[in-house]
Design goal:
Low-confidence stretches: none
Helix content: 25-40%
Distance between the termini: 51 Å
Mean pLDDT: 87
Oligomer: single chain
Largest sheet: 6 strands, mixed
Structural class: alpha+beta
CATH class of the largest domain: Alpha Beta
Number of helices: 14
CATH superfamily of the largest domain: HUPs
Number of domains: 3
Radius of gyration: 30 Å
């Protein structure tokens, strides 16, 4: 056990203290074994004259068991006996979560662990996953129909699987992945360790528990080395996925188009040279790159079909979770979900008597109007006289059709549809309010201040008006 821990010594500058370590301590057999082995490793390093900071044990209190308070007490006692700092964090786990209570508990646990690591400046978080966990995870992912990223299972080192929020600066380390549960149990007995047993681990209602208690023993009876075999399969899957990601990255760069706004866009016409499997691989890669959930195989196939078969001037909307994959003017891009304003929400005009506000929130249209003062020496084009802004109330109103806008004073007014088309503003970006003042258009989001409203002395205070998306 201690040899396994020593085999994953964290690289460091020998002249500096080792980076701060933390341990995810549930109180079960696995984490108590790692706690004991890590305490011995720290003691050995200190006896060798190395500067090793006090490690931190982090316990997550899920509140799902009537025994949870007792487990916290055991964890704190065992951690402090071994010279660890200790922190307990309580989380709320929704019992009706879409990913199930196990998935919700896991997400809440890693979010809390990441927050604790960030707060304490932890560089490495150790978890007690072992060889049996690895084998169970591979089979579990296969049965759930996961692709190569799923069956690649767990790596010894990696990032914390935190879905959202502040990025975690700590790295996740699983030093016991090559150690079996049986070996860990023997270590615990030899060391007379105390641990807690979670009754839910015997509940066959959960698939992982059913695999652990019913399936794995049967496999072991016929294939004693099944753990090593599945671990090797997981490594091969990870290598294959790495090659697919490299291919997708090359295809992504080949199809990428230049964008002035910094958005990632792919040229649809360049994707037509890819066959169905390669296009699906690229779409899968791009979806993961955007931090979105992996789409089902049938959805990927449908996306690919529509993208390949669409006419040159076609537009597509392919919803996926909280985002939409859109095709517009031969370019594919991921966008937020821009809904048309609810007629009930915008039945009445929204009025602002402007008196120096920097922002005008307009949630009905999923955005805000931002006012920015023009600094001395800046160009005054597309700006408005402060006296005009203050003179009369500003009114935000949905488009009714037929509105006209001019780019500059003295220019010809044309329909908003004309301007949007000529400037390449996609249809889904046109659900925005028009700002009026005394029956005249002052500002149109994505176009700018109306030419007639730009008139006025350049020597007086002037302001820019900009639209900020908040979809």
């Amino acid at each position: 056990m201690r040899l396994a821990l020593a085999a994953h010594v964290i690289p460091h500058d020998a002249s500096a203290p080792r980076p701060a370590l933390a341990l995810a301590l549930s109180g079960g057999l696995d984490s108590m074994v790692l706690l004991d082995a890590l305490a011995h490793w720290v003691q050995t390093r200190r006896e060798a004259g190395e500067a090793v900071a006090q490690p931190l044990a982090i316990h997550i209190h899920h509140g799902l068991s009537e025994h949870a308070d007792d487990w916290l007490v055991v964890c704190e006692r065992e951690a402090r006996l071994r010279g660890f700092a200790f922190e307990a964090k309580r989380v709320n786990v929704p019992r009706d979560a879409r990913q199930g209570i196990e998935g919700a508990a896991r997400a809440a646990r890693y979010a809390a662990l990441a927050a604790s690591c960030n707060a304490h400046g932890v560089a490495w978080l150790l978890s007690a996953h072992h060889a049996n966990d690895q084998a169970e995870t591979v089979l579990l992912q296969m049965l759930r129909g996961a692709g190569l990223p799923g069956v690649a299972a767990m790596a010894v080192e990696g990032a914390l699987p935190v879905a959202a929020g502040e990025p975690c600066r700590a790295r996740l380390l699983r030093p016991l992945l090559d150690i079996s549960r049986e070996t860990m149990h023997a270590y615990a007995k030899a060391r007379s360790l105390s641990w807690v047993d979670d009754p839910s681990n015997d509940d066959r209602h959960y698939l992982r528990n059913a695999l652990r208690h019913d399936v794995m023993p049967a496999i072991a009876a016929h294939v004693p080395a099944y753990r090593e075999t599945l671990a090797r399969f997981a490594r091969h899957a990870a290598q294959a996925q790495s090659l697919l990601d490299q291919l997708a990255q090359a295809d992504f760069e080949m199809a990428r188009s230049a964008s002035n706004d910094g958005d990632e866009r792919l040229q649809r016409s360049r994707l037509q040279v890819l066959d169905a499997s390669r296009l699906a691989n690229l779409l899968r890669y791009w979806t993961a790159r955007r931090g979105l959930a992996m789409p089902p195989e049938a959805r990927l196939e449908e996306w690919g079909r529509q993208i390949r078969d669409a006419q040159a001037d076609a537009s597509l909307e392919l919803p996926h979770g909280d985002a939409v994959l859109r095709l517009y003017r031969d370019e594919l891009q991921w966008t937020a979900v821009y809904d048309s304003a609810d007629p009930d929400d915008v039945a009445c005009d929204v009025v602002l008597q402007w008196s120096g506000e920097r922002e005008w929130p307009l949630p009905q249209w999923q955005g805000s109007i931002v006012f920015a003062p023009v600094a001395e020496g800046e160009p005054v084009g597309d700006t408005i006289d402060e006296r005009v802004l203050r003179a009369h109330p500003l009114v935000a109103r949905s488009r009714a059709g037929g509105e006209r806008w001019r780019e500059r004073a003295g220019g010809h007014s044309r329909s908003l549809k004309h301007w949007y088309q000529s400037r390449g503003v996609a249809a889904w970006l046109r659900h925005v309010p028009i700002v009026w003042q005394r029956g005249e258009i002052v500002f149109v989001p994505r176009l700018g201040i109306d030419g007639a409203a730009q008139s006025g002395e350049s020597a007086v205070a002037r302001w820019r008006m900009m639209w900020r998306d908040e979809a």
